[in-house]
Amino acid sequence: MDLQLAGRVALVTGSSKGIGAAIAGTLAHEGATVVVHGRDPVQAQRIARGIVEAGGRAHVVTGDLTDEAAVDQLLSAARRQAGRIDILVNNAGGSGGVQQTWEDTQPATWQASYDRNVLAAVRIITRILPDMRQARWGRVINISSLAALMPPPSRPEYAASKLAMNAMTASLAKAVASEGITVNAISPGTIHSAALDQRFREVARDGGVPEDAPWEEVERMALPHFAQVPVGRVGTLDEVADAVAYLASTKAAYITGMNLRVDGGMLPGL
């Protein structure tokens, strides 16, 4: 299927590793010019170089999305290198590595999580939206989390910030629906990232699985300790990236305001 992304420019925030890097690579493979973003210029350049070596087009911008001046600078650099941004994927954010519980959670942690996951996206959206409105075409895709819909007992601030992102997605979708702009969220479930790989291997090792065992054996042993996934495996980075590419395409022009769960059936719904 031709997703008709040739000639489009996509900015993927937080794309110097993990899900963001996979999204950037997939969009480039589908013909879009990709602007890779991260805070580590070496990592971001590595991802962009890989895209170019594979025959795609990529540029790099760096900057802290919680800093207003840095956002202005990186968007100026993105436009200078690639032109008007047609597709925005708000992937930057995350839990910040904090594993607080309700016994030790602090308001400052909630504030930082909201800034990192919600306001970072708002800063980019409000600066790019005028160009999309003028062009009467645009795609905004917010990477949320299944934690927003299935909040765990720990990291409550992360789940709350991702749920706020879902509400933001629905509101913006309604605001721009008649202007050729779609706005959707994607909520990944248990996805095979580098960090997940390490945690699974630690659990599998404790369960007697050899260190050099194939991933399928590690996954079979460790998955039940982390999540009950009906399809019986974790998702891949490419499966999340493919969902983003579809929502970014002309084929998804009648889909907006949706939260697409890429979760292997963990949260089935009607």
Number of helices, where a helix is a run of at least 4 consecutive DSSP H or I residues: 8
How many individual β-strands?
7
Percent of residues in beta strands: 5-15%
Helix amount: 40-55%
Which architecture of the largest domain does the CATH hierarchy give at level 2?
Answer: 3-Layer(aba) Sandwich
Would you identify the regions where 5 or more consecutive residues have pLDDT less than 50?
Answer: none
Kindly report the name of the CATH homologous superfamily of the largest domain. NAD(P)-binding Rossmann-like Domain
What is the CATH level 1 assignment of the largest domain? Alpha Beta
State the domain count. 2
Explain this structure.
With 270 residues, the protein is α/β, with parallel strands linked by helices. The chain has two domains: 9-191 and 236-262, 3-Layer(aba) Sandwich (Rossmann fold); 192-234, no CATH class. 47% of the residues lie in helices and 14% in strands. It is built from eight helices and seven strands. Strands 3-2-1-4-5-6-7 form a seven-stranded parallel β-sheet, with helices on both faces. The longest helix has 29 residues, at 107-135. The protein starts with 8 loop residues before the first strand and ends in an 8-residue tail after the last strand.
